[in-house]
Design brief:
The chain is α/β, with parallel strands linked by helices. Helix content is 41%, strand content 12%. The structure holds adenosine-5'-diphosphate and zinc ion. Adenosine-5'-diphosphate binds next to helix 3.
Length: 639
């Protein structure tokens, strides 16, 4: 469900914003003109949802606030009008690395783009200023702190500015997770440039953040877009967590050559997993906030350039990763909340090719995270964090479409009964009745007086012969050994599950003591069943049966490359890497995986046939066309 404001442009109070003048002709643009520009510049034949309206409104001189998920195609929403408008579009972007990537990628499509930030030498900066003054830039990327500099404002005023675009606009809001004090100075834009339209973009959806952006940028009657947060090309799956490093390795071996991210909760776990994978021959690098900045940057770059297959990271690895061909995101530990999970998995498949998101889940993660949350001082904050963690556990353990659950978190209802692209909808996960086991656990808890943590309760259930059990006489109680038919791991995760679903609570004291809650009574009395999911039962990851109901938007699961000529794909990928090194840009910037896949399907052997491939615009045809066509021909002759 998307709420889209489609009112006609009515200027609000204050000075009326002026329609942007286009290079082609003045006063509005036709749809054909837009499509032609889209196709020539980017090589795409159609707009993604909302892109066209946003571009049109910017060109008509209206402010815009666009909330679109990662991979929704936000850059194009301002790059295309920047290309079409007379004058320079000024883009405010929070990170130097992000700016550089954006400029490189715009230049790959022959746009005149440059950035101004602290990484430039004086001479380089002067050159950019000169280009700004002589009107030869389509796009100028800048960091927000420039707006606090009078000399910079003066230069902008002396130049011809088409519009302003604020990227990652949630950085303006203290409610957002990436608040940047520097962004506060952006309220100066409206003051100094009352007639220039401002377009703000973010992937953060909360209402509080949205209101903050509107207010801080003083947007006037903006065209507002809230795109669906559904990512149709992502396959969501939860697998039982056992020997997680070995499970990760097995997964990676099934996905040879595919770039992916592995998230872990702690820095120690990151180091351990990265070392383990490296020792097994997987090119993997660690990333966390404890590493020196240089090393972090180097590791991110190696990943971008397809030199390392895998990054093992904490959540510090996030904003600024533009790599479009991330084919999987694995969570080796339970994330703290669904919002984080969505943002992290969202880094997969920006090129909209099918990608996998697998969460390895064991109930054992819950007590660990709870222990961590118990250290939060503020009672309200803590309650909220616990509630979010429980939601996360619900996501992993409920027999309900994963996609539906994620979207529900963003108050969006998923319209299809079967998404065809998660383990639940494809029948990979089965439920089993664990009512009897849950009752045993509850009873063991009651009989030991609700005074112990999970470890001891599990010992009692499996009938362990420990000093503590003997000292307390717990080997004499009725439930002692009643759960022998299952192992300790089973009971630990069952208890985690019961905690996550609120059947059990944890005491606030120094040691986590398990308590019964009111919610457990129906299960204890046999009035309600307690079902658990048995994960990973069905076939191979990400390969739904052909028979399941297909939604319109369903992802082609797996790597999506099954129907293509793998040998040709490998050749083209090799060529892409060579060219990337020559141009000094990451490979995905030359052509996305999706574009290479298209080439493998259609095998264009002429430049004009190549130009028909999605993602091949005029500039890239001219720059790389011959080499790709030759490679495809050579492959054809060999076959
Ligand atoms: P966001 O910033 O919203 O996360 P990007 O701007 O990075 O998304 O775009 C994600 C990917 O989608 C990029 O590889 C981009 O080239 C591609 N893309 C954007 N718009 C289109 C389109 N209309 N058709 C096909 N691909 C598109
Ligand atoms: Zn589903």
């Amino acid at each position: 469900m998307s709420r889209t404001d489609t009112e006609p442009a009515v200027p609000g109070e204050g000075e009326a914003p002026a329609a942007v003048q286009t290079k082609a002709y003045l006063g509005g643009v036709s749809e054909t003109l837009l499509h032609t520009a889209l196709n020539k510049t980017f090589g795409y034949s159609s707009f993604r949802p909302h892109q066209r309206e946003i571009v049109e409104h910017i060109l008509a001189g209206r402010d815009v606030l666009a909330i679109m998920p990662t991979g929704g195609g936000k850059s194009l929403c301002y790059q295309l009008p920047a290309r079409m408008a007379a004058g320079t579009a000024v883009v405010i972007s929070p990170l130097i690395s992000l700016m550089k990537d954006q400029v490189d990628s715009a230049r790959e499509n022959n746009m005149a783009a440059a950035y101004l930030n602290s990484s430039l030498t004086g001479a380089q900066a002067s050159q950019v200023y000169r280009k700004l003054q002589d009107g030869s830039l389509d796009l100028l990327y800048i960091s927000p702190e420039r707006f606090a500099m009078d000399s910079f404002i003066a230069s902008l005023k002396a130049a011809r500015i088409s519009f302003f675009a604020v990227d990652e606009a949630h950085c303006l809001s203290e409610w957002g997770h990436d608040f940047r004090p520097d962004y506060m100075s952006l309220s100066a834009i409206r003051r100094h440039f009352p007639r220039a339209p401002i377009a703000a973009f973010t992937a953060t959806a909360t209402n509080a953040v949205q209101q903050d952006i509107l207010a801080k940028l003083t947007l006037r009657n903006p065209f507002q877009v809230r795109a669906s947060f559904n990512r149709p090309n992502l396959f969501y799956e939860v697998r039982p967590k056992r020997e997680v490093d070995a499970q990760l390795l097995a997964f990676i071996r099934e996905h040879k050559d595919e770039p992916g991210i592995i998230y872990r909760t702690t820095r120690t776990a990151v180091e351990k997993t990265a070392a383990f994978l490296s020792a097994k021959g997987v090119k993997s690098l660690p990333y966390h906030a404890g590493l020196p900045q240089q090393e972090r940057e180097a590791n991110q770059e190696a990943f971008s350039n397809d030199e390392a297959q895998v990054v093992v990271a904490t959540i510090a690895f996030g904003m600024g990763i533009d790599k479009s061909n991330v084919r999987f995101v694995l969570h080796a530990d339970l994330p703290k909340n669904l919002e984080g999970y969505y943002q992290e998995t969202g880094r997969a498949g920006r090129d909209s090719d099918p990608s996998l998101c697998v969460l390895f889940y064991g109930g054992g993660d819950i007590p660990k995270l709870r222990h961590f949350l118990d250290q939060i001082q503020d009672a309200e904050d803590k309650a909220l964090a616990v509630q979010r963690l429980n939601q996360m556990a619900d996501f992993a353990s409920r027999n309900l479409c994963r996609r539906r659950q994620i979207l529900a978190y963003f108050e969006e209802e998923y319209p299809e009964p079967n998404c065809g692209s998660c383990d639940i909808c494809t029948g990979k996960a089965e439920t089993s009745d664990a009512t009897r086991e849950a009752q045993m656990a509850l009873s063991a808890l009651v009989r030991t007086g609700e005074r112990f943590g999970a470890a001891h309760v599990v010992d009692v259930l499996v009938g362990a012969d420990t000093q503590k059990v003997r000292d307390l006489g717990h080997d004499k109680i009725k439930t002692y050994g009643a759960g022998k038919h299952k192992d300790k791991g089973y009971w630990r995760s069952l208890i985690g599950e019961m905690l996550g679903r609120g059947l059990l609570g944890l005491d606030d004291g120094p040691y986590p003591v398990l308590k019964l809650t009111a919610a457990c009574l129906p299960v204890l009395q046999g009035k309600e069943k307690f079902e658990i999911l048995e994960l990973g039962k069905g076939g191979k990851a990400g390969k739904p049966d052909a028979s399941d109901a297909a939604g319109k938007d369903r992802a082609r699961a797996g790597s999506g490359a099954e129907d293509i000529d793998q040998e040709l794909f490998a050749r083209l990928r090799g060529l892409r890497k060579t060219l990337a090194q020559r141009q000094n840009v990451p490979p995905y910037m030359i052509f996305s995986d999706r574009t290479l896949h298209d080439m493998c399907r259609n095998k264009p052997v002429t430049l004009s046939a190549l130009r028909e491939i999605s993602g091949v615009g005029d500039a890239k045809r001219d720059r790389y066309g011959i080499e790709f066509v030759q490679e495809i021909r050579a492959h054809g002759e060999k076959a």
